[in-house]
Structures are given as structure tokens and as C-alpha cells.
Design brief:
376 residues, alpha+beta, Tetrahydropterin Synthase, Chain A, 4-stranded antiparallel β-sheet, 3-stranded antiparallel β-sheet, 10 helices, 48% helix, 17% strand, disordered N terminus, disordered C terminus
């Protein structure tokens, strides 16, 4: 061997008192130390680290494992806020819903809890994107729609929705993209409703009915999907013709509004004049009826009086003639000026002098002007 010629012997150089590479060896020989001794020393050091020796080490390990298990189970407690609903799952399977308060479910990875907000009202804009100050840019691929009379209308609207508290589990499990699903359903419903109407009605009088009909269609469709969503309101933001023909549509709309205004004014005038004319006609008819009744009653009364007078006349014609003469003279001479002449006084000239008081009263009183022929 090449190292046998060296004075120290072996590849490790000069050996110590015991010889060998370990610095010492068993007395009387050059063999390396026992490996069991090294393992035994390592076990002694491990026992010094774990209290209680080898038997107590297993109990301590069990305590550590139990503490870790309890700590893991304690992480299953969770809090549900008043605006939330707790959706409990075990191994991904729905097990039940919980209300507000402190609740418990198995922690991850065995259990999982989803807590959707059921009171938040979310808004999805369709046909536009909101900006810093109200409406932002238009999205024409969403807003341009075909009407029933083959015109194009530009409609921007909002859909406001919230999670149904009674069906929150459907919202969690059945909708992968809630906003995208609701947006697609609402846009489709709006196109369906607009496609059944005329453009003039859409621009003027039927926007409220369109929004209500779209809301009903969206809600029924989402209920069929089992979405667990409540559509709160569909709000029309802007309804107008396309920009290329907007001015012409506005002119037509203004003309139609003027025509409608004139028609309303005519209806108002007719509603005032016709009842008045009918009232006047009814009044005249009633007056004619009353006059006829009056004339007939007077004629009947006069005929009855004449018959009565005639009956009395037949009994005493001379008396009746005298009476009729006196009554006739009374009516004729009652309002006339009379001069009374006493024909029975033969001594006089047959004329009674009288003072013409009536003539004096009839003369006009002129104040400061003297009457003609008066003595100054």
C-alpha cells in the first residue's frame, strides 16, 4: 500500500494514543467507535428536549395534536351581519342558511360559508357607462334597438336588483356571473318589448309601461333560472332617436305635440260650449212649455168665465148688459182725464167751474227760466 511506508501509518497521518481516525479507539485495538453509541447519545439529547422522557413524549405529542385540532375547530365560528345571510356548505354541498348573529360551521377544508349581502341594491347600466358627472359614454351595440314600425331608437336604461333573502342559496350556487346574466336578460327583454311598439309611442307616452313590462319579463326569466334575484326597478334614462336623424324626429314630435295641443283645446272648448248650448235649449223648451201651459190655462179660465157670464146673462139680460157697460166704461175712463158736467142744474149754464190742477202739475218746472207769457 502506498501509505504503509509512512512513519505515522495510514492515510490519516500520525495517530493518537488510541490510534484510528476518530482520535481515540478502544483500548488495545484500532477499530472505529460503535454506531449504536452514537444513536444512543442522540436519543438522550432528544429526551432532554421532550420533557418527561420517552413515555411522556407520546402524551405531549397527543396534547399538541389535540390542541391543534381544537384550534382548527374554533376557526369555524363566524358572524352574520344584519344585511347578510349565511350559506353553510360541507364538502361543497349546501346544508342550510343562517340569520344574523354568531354562527358555526365546520372550518376549511371540510366546511365553507358564503355570506351574500341581501340588502344592497345594485345597479347595472345598459346602453351607456356612467362617468364622473352622470352619464358617460354611449354603448351603441347595447342601446340601438329596432321598433315595431322598423325604425331605430336609442335607449339607455338601468336595472336595479338585489339578492332575495329567501333564495340566497340560489344566487350563490346557480349564478356564476350575476351581473352579466341580469344584463343579458334585461337587454333581451327590452328589445322584445320595443319590437312590439311604434317609435312615436316609445318616444312620448309609453315609457313607463315599457319599463314595467321589461321588469316583469326580467323577473320571470330570472325566476325560471332559479337566480335568487329580485328586480327592484327598471328605470329609463334616455329614449331618443339615433343621432343621424334626431333633429328630424324632434321636428315631427313638436308638430305632433302642437296638433295634440290644438285638439285638446278644441275638446276643451267643445266641452264648455256644448253643455251651455244644451242648457239654453232645455231652458227655452221649458219656457215654451210653461208659456203653453199658461196660455191654455188662461184660455180655459176665460172660456169658463164667459160660460158663467153667459148663464147669468140668460137669466137677466138687462142687468148683465148694464153691468157690462159699467165695467167697460170703468176700464176705459179709469185712466183718462174727465170733465164732470151737472146737467140737472137748470139755473146755471150746465158747466161746473173747476181749477185745472192736473194741467198745472203737467207743466215742466224749468227752475230759473220764466214760463212763456208770464208777467215779469
Amino acid at each position: 500500500m502506498p501509505w504503509s511506508n509512512q512513519s505515522g501509518g495510514g492515510p490519516w497521518g500520525q495517530r493518537g494514543p488510541g490510534g484510528g481516525p476518530w482520535g481515540s479507539g478502544p483500548s488495545g485495538g484500532g477499530a472505529p467507535p460503535d454506531l449504536e453509541e452514537i444513536l444512543r447519545r442522540s436519543q438522550d439529547r432528544l429526551r432532554n428536549i421532550i420533557p418527561g422522557g420517552g413515555g411522556m413524549g407520546r402524551k405531549g405529542l397527543a396534547v399538541i395534536v389535540l390542541a391543534a385540532l381544537l384550534l382548527w375547530l374554533a376557526t369555524g365560528f363566524y358572524t352574520v351581519r344584519p344585511n347578510e345571510v349565511g350559506i353553510n356548505m360541507i364538502f361543497g354541498r349546501y346544508t342550510g342558511s343562517t340569520g344574523e348573529g354568531l354562527r358555526y360551521n365546520f372550518p376549511y377544508p371540510i366546511g365553507r360559508v358564503e355570506k351574500p349581502d341581501v340588502r344592497q341594491r345594485r345597479t347595472i347600466p345598459i346602453g351607456y357607462r356612467p362617468g364622473a358627472q352622470g352619464r358617460g359614454r354611449d354603448v351603441l351595440e347595447e342601446s340601438l334597438m329596432l321598433t315595431g314600425d322598423e325604425n331605430i331608437v336609442d335607449i339607455d336604461f338601468d336595472v336595479q336588483w338585489s339578492v332575495s333573502p329567501a333564495r340566497a342559496q340560489d344566487f350563490v350556487f346557480n349564478l356564476q356571473n350575476p351581473e352579466g346574466t341580469i344584463k343579458s336578460v334585461a337587454e333581451s327583454a327590452m328589445r322584445e318589448v320595443v319590437g312590439r311598439r311604434q317609435i312615436q309611442n316609445i318616444l312620448t307616452t309609453e315609457q313607463a309601461s315599457i319599463a314595467a313590462e321589461v321588469k316583469d319579463i326580467v323577473q320571470s326569466t330570472l325566476d325560471a333560472y332559479g337566480a335568487g334575484v329580485i328586480v327592484e326597478v327598471v328605470q329609463m334614462i334616455a329614449v331618443q332617436p339615433p343621432a343621424q336623424v334626431r333633429e328630424a324626429f324632434f321636428d315631427v314630435n313638436a308638430a305632433q305635440q302642437d296638433a295634440e295641443r290644438v285638439q285638446n283645446e278644441a275638446r276643451t272648448y267643445a266641452s264648455q260650449v256644448v253643455p251651455r248650448a244644451r242648457g239654453e235649449a232645455a231652458q227655452r223648451l221649458q219656457q215654451a212649455e210653461a208659456y203653453r201651459e199658461q196660455v191654455v190655462a188662461e184660455a180655459t179660465g176665460q172660456a169658463a168665465r164667459f160660460n158663467q157670464v153667459y148663464e147669468e146673462y140668460r137669466k137677466a139680460p138687462a142687468v148683465i148688459r148694464e153691468r157690462m157697460f159699467i165695467e167697460t166704461m170703468e176700464r176705459v175712463l179709469g185712466g183718462m182725464d174727465k170733465i164732470i158736467i151737472d146737467q140737472g142744474n137748470g139755473a146755471g149754464q150746465g158747466v161746473v167751474p173747476y181749477l185745472p190742477l192736473n194741467e198745472l202739475q203737467r207743466r215742466p218746472q224749468t227752475g230759473g227760466q220764466p214760463q212763456q207769457g208770464a208777467v215779469r
